[in-house]
Amino acid sequence: MSLNVKTALIGGGVMGEAIARSLLRSGTPKELLTIAEPNADRKPIFDSLGVKFTSHNLEAARGAEVIVLSIKPQTMRHVLGEFPGEVSPNALIFSIMAGVPIGAMAKYLGDHQPIVRVMPNTPAQIGEGISGWTCTPSASDEQRKQAEAILLAMGDHVFFEDEHYLDMVTALSGTGPAYVFLFMEAMIDAGVHMGFPRAVAEKLVLHTIKGSADYAIQSKLHAAQLRNQVTSPGGTTAAALYQLEKGGLRTVMSRGIWAAYERSVELGKE
């Protein structure tokens, strides 16, 4: 499912690049995609993709039917402050700004501008991401399909009628890859401590985590059932899990995710 309308991507950082690559992989014609990014060092990346590059946001946004905002929340006022009278009031605004509610964007764009708010995650760079999203009532059925084309290019998605769930998505899956990477790092370091060469420890850990996630998706079993399959009475897994539980792994994870949720809510208020 490709996006076959003129599209402006405001912000060519890591996620901007991920979205651009995802769209191109899905079959979106490169001539329909324009990237606006003030950092000229990023230009060679997008030149290699064959898409138009500019340092001026309005040059990309004028005439675009879909405008993707992959910018930092702190730059929203500057970027959206340029839009009134310059971009189509019917253009679909597709925002991945963390913690920025639709109401904050509507202050600059107007209450009738079609807006989609999305929280993706970094596996979108390889088309394996998961995004939570919502949209304004002014977004037409066709515009919802356009949004889904972008989301499917990045991976899978979950739609929410109530926007407040997006802060929860931010804490659980948007920030989630960092939790996984930290856990991976700890496992790899433990492997090195036991005596494995780092490259061997990395291979063992990466394939264990990837295989476990794929198996969980395919089996459709509860996580506790999957854990019990590996845990023999009095065995090595039981010994390891005892120490993890004793150390408060679940509690620490829960507190960390809750802290991310609270920070997302704070960003929205700011």
Provide keyphrases for this structure.
single chain; 270 residues; alpha/beta; Rossmann fold; ProC C-terminal domain-like fold; eight-stranded mixed sheet; 12 helices; 8 strands; 53% helix; elongated
Characterization of this structure:
This protein is an alpha/beta fold. The longest helix is centred in the last third of the chain and has 22 residues. An eight-stranded mixed sheet has the order 3-2-1-4-5-6-7-8, sandwiched between helices. α8 crosses α9. β7, α6 and β8 form a beta-alpha-beta unit. It has two domains: 155 residues, NAD(P)-binding Rossmann-like Domain (Rossmann fold, 3-Layer(aba) Sandwich), CATH 3.40.50.720; 94 residues, ProC C-terminal domain-like fold. The model has no long low-confidence stretch (mean pLDDT 94). It contains twelve helices and eight strands. The chain is 53% helix and 13% strand.
In short:
This protein has 270 residues and is α/β, with parallel strands linked by helices.
SSE blueprint and pairings:
Blueprint: E1 7-10, H1 14-25, E2 33-36, H2 43-49, E3 52-54, H3 57-61, E4 66-69, H4 76-81, E5 92-95, H5 102-109, E6 115-119, E7 129-135, H6 141-154, E8 155-159, H7 165-174, H8 176-194, H9 198-219, H10 223-230, H11 236-246, H12 249-269
Parallel strand pairs: 1-2, 1-4, 2-3, 4-5, 5-6, 7-8
Antiparallel strand pairs: 6-7
Largest sheet report:
8 strands, mixed
The end-to-end span amounts to: 36 Å
Q: Look up the CATH topology of the largest domain.
A: Rossmann fold
Helix/strand class: alpha/beta
Q: Give the integer mean of the pLDDT values.
A: 94
CATH architecture tag of the largest domain:
3-Layer(aba) Sandwich
Main CATH class of the largest domain: Alpha Beta
Proportion of strand residues:
5-15%
CATH superfamily membership of the largest domain:
NAD(P)-binding Rossmann-like Domain
Task: Quickly count the domains.
Answer: 2
Q: Uncertain regions: pLDDT < 50 for 5+ in a row?
A: none
Put simply, the count of helices is: 12
Q: Which percent bin holds the helix content?
A: 40-55%
The SSE string, one letter per element, is EHEHEHEHEHEEHEHHHHHH
Shape: elongated
- Cα Rg: 21 Å
Would you report the number of β strands?
8
Strand order of the largest sheet: 3-2-1-4-5-6-7-8
